[in-house]
Amino acid sequence: MDTSRYPTLIMLLVALVQGFCLLILHESIEFGFWPATSPTALYSLYAFVLICPTLFLLAVNEHNIKRLTLGAVGFSLLCSSLAYYTGLQVIPLPFADVEDLLFPFCFSTALLTFKVLMYLQVWANKEAFAYPKLFSYSWRNLLTFGLALVFTLVTWGVLMLWAGLFKVINVDFFYELFTEEWFYYPILSMALAFGIILIRSLTFIVDTIKRLQQALLKYLLVLLVFISLLFLIALPFTGLAPIWENGPGSYLILWMQACILFALNSVYQNDAEERPYGLLLHRFIYLGILLLPCYSALVFYGLTARIDQYGWSLSRYWGMIVWALLALFALGYVAGIIRQRDAWISSLGKVNVSMGCVFMLVLIAINSPALDLRKLTVQDQVARLSSGDITLEEIDIQYFERHLAKPGYDVIQQWKSDYKTTNPNFVVRLNRLYMSNELLNSEDDKLLVLSNIECLNGCNAPTELLDQIYTDRSQNRWCLMNNKHMYLLEADPNEDGEMEYLLIQENINGFRSFYLYARVQQAWQSLTIQTLHPAENQPEVPLIESLGDLSIEYKTPKYKQMHIGEWTIDVSLRHNVKDDD
After folding, report:
1. Which fold has domain 437-535+542-552?
2. What is the pLDDT of residue 3?
3. Which of 227, 359, 406, 560 could be joined to 89 by an S-S link, Cβ 3.0–4.6 Å?
């Protein structure tokens, strides 16, 4: 009996089960039943359903089914537990915006799965953990999955073409069939599996593509090293300041390092006798490698300077993690060059295999409680606030809302309690987070907003006016999101003996808005006004200082209204205010 057919049949069956599982998860989101109602369950199940069958499809053969299944299930359960923890970071569902939470998890988990797969294949096939074998598996897996994915998309395109052609002639059956979830989930899963099976049977094509990319990267590596050396030579003449003044210089340097290391490992594959280049170019390459720690030092200086100035953030944590990994790779290669000179390639595999394990452990840690970057960012910002390094006005509360998930949500709820009496304006701003417009208006919120209005020069604002101000300013959550203070002044610009009120709103960024309230038909209304700003050459002063002892003066317009028949012409000057008297 030909047992080689059994893995193929098993692979197709696994793909079919995966498709139906994905269909059930999709329907739970569509119709709002469990597990969609529980982020922890939903993310855990998605992680297992996506990862375990994919590992099986890419690596199974008739000799390793048991060991591979054991390893794939074990690793998928680990990823499910990490997804469970990520689900715990989702803020209460009515306010949840999970894009910034899921993207780093999905990206880091995809990298982790890619790395684990090659180690799993070596273990399942009972082979030695040699770098050339790991390298070969990595490229085969990448190209196999990529080409199979293209085949799946082409299959989907052909089905849509089929459906579209019949829809044109008013035969809607195929269009309705191919766009139903219960049809395309299992069909596309089967198409991906069939593509993987087909491409895995044509290993010579994958190996040919691998050799082609190795040949292309052979020349790209020389160019990358040449550019990096030119950059380093130019630094004494330009100084270090432009690196960080003209954009994210640290991250560009990290990208350059990553590209060099990627090209290096694609060209050299742990064979000490291998010479892709002549001796001169070979030494030119490892000269570039010897200088990589210089770039790591530059990045470390830039990142630590930003951290000292602004504190930690998610991007700075990620930058420091990437910096540490690339620096360890570079130091490992440099140590090999120092010890073995021209034969340093023989140490390449040892560095890569050990650093691969470190890389996987880091990816696991950052998605677990052990190294939760969101919690660490919140703790750092809270510590900076407690030490006086930043003020409440300087805290980017929207960053906590959009990027820090549950840790950000928890600290904002704590701040609402801590500052309700000492800084009600800060609480007003916090109340605008996580909420829709319909949830903003409440008696407590109204009292907080009105307590932030300072009546200058002894003015006594009517209660109806304050109610209208609250109604207007609370129309949407953005109006008071960046509010620093509000001031109210009595005014009578039409000189009719009835007082109007000028509301001046100052934002934390220094921008000032003016609103004139007048009683119209027994109700207070905000009139449309045009505000002319001071001349650009006049120095800005804090608003409270400029309003402290003022008295409003009224000037007759230089151009009066003109009436021509039924037409009224009102001349309005739009340049900055200047003293022309």
Report:
1. Double Stranded RNA Binding Domain (3.30.160)
2. 40
3. 406
